[in-house]
């Protein structure tokens, strides 16, 4: 049940409840309660069907990761709360399809946000100043649900702005934005999950953990694949998709080969991108098991 039911339960179950709550205009704390239940479910399933049992062990990083989650979720909720103010400051043309069923509005918002976030994610592997902040996320050496929101808040803000700003400019309603915020959090839980779940051929379309592990390979250029948050559609189009069903992952393959001693405490991770050593000067690396299964990258290696 956990192996085959976990992903539908999270994607359809929790998101479905969240969509119903948002459509009814219920208080936002109900969405926080749904997210809390989703996080508890993620931790439970990771222990029932772990991909790597060692990844469930705290490595003096659990408190840090919870701080990352608290800070970045607060930023996401604050951005949702700020939408009416932004709409008042920058009047938007009323192009939003209010007549569509609410669930269709949320799906449309997800697809638009997915494109913007994917573009910024890819750029963060190609542009040095963005990589400085994105590197915080790539410093992980174990793969589990909370890793999804282990991000520098400045980079989180840039990513979310790229995904949501076009929606706000065409009149994104607050209740749709609330459902989108929940969907982002649930997707990050699934995408970085330590659960050895099964999704069949859907793994070639949805950006879930089987494909996203390749993105966290530590060698320069090798991890420049599978950038999508919700889908892998843009990766297929940009030829940045990679998948090898025979590949097995462990902690020795994660992190950043160029920065094996990247700071691990929360405060140091907040400060490090601003320091002279906070960037990466990298030489290309080879890992033939992956390199032979995907098209070549089209920019300088950056992780």
Automatic annotation (TrEMBL):
It is found in: Membrane. GO terms for cellular component: membrane. PANTHER family: STEROL DESATURASE (PTHR11863). One of its GO terms (biological process) is lipid biosynthetic process. InterPro entries: Fatty_acid_hydroxylase, Sterol_Desaturase_Related. The chain crosses the membrane at residues 7-24, 30-49, 70-90, 102-123, 160-190. This is Fatty acid hydroxylase domain-containing protein.
């Amino acid at each position: 049940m956990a192996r085959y039911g976990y992903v539908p339960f999270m994607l359809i179950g929790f998101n479905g409840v969240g969509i119903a709550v948002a459509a009814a205009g219920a208080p936002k704390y109900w969405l926080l309660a749904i997210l809390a239940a989703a996080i508890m479910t993620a931790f439970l399933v990771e222990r029932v069907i772990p991909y790597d049992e060692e990844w469930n062990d705290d490595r003096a990083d659990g408190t840090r990761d919870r701080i990352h989650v608290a800070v970045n979720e607060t930023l996401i909720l604050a951005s949702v709360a700020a939408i009416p103010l932004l709409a008042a400051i920058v009047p938007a043309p009323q192009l939003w399809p209010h007549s569509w069923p609410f669930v269709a509005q949320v799906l449309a918002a997800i697809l638009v946000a997915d494109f913007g976030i994917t573009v910024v994610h890819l750029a963060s592997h190609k542009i040095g100043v963005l990589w400085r902040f994105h590197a915080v996320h790539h410093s992980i050496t174990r793969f589990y649900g909370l890793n999804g929101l282990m991000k520098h808040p400045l980079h989180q803000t840039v990513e979310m702005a790229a995904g949501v700003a076009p929606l706000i400019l065409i009149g994104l309603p607050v209740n749709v934005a609330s459902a989108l915020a929940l969907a982002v959090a649930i997707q990050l839980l699934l995408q970085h999950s330590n659960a050895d779940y099964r999704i069949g051929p859907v793994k070639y379309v949805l950006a879930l953990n089987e494909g996203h592990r390749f993105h966290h390979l530590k060698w320069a250029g090798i991890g420049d694949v599978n950038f999508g948050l919700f889908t892998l559609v843009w990766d297929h189009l940009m030829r940045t998709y990679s998948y090898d069903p025979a590949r097995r992952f462990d902690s020795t393959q994660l992190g950043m080969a160029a920065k094996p001693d990247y700071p691990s405490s929360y405060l140091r991770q907040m400060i490090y991108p601003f320091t002279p050593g906070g960037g990466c000067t990298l030489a290309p690396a080879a890992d033939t098991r992956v390199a032979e299964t995907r098209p070549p990258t089209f920019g300088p290696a950056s992780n």
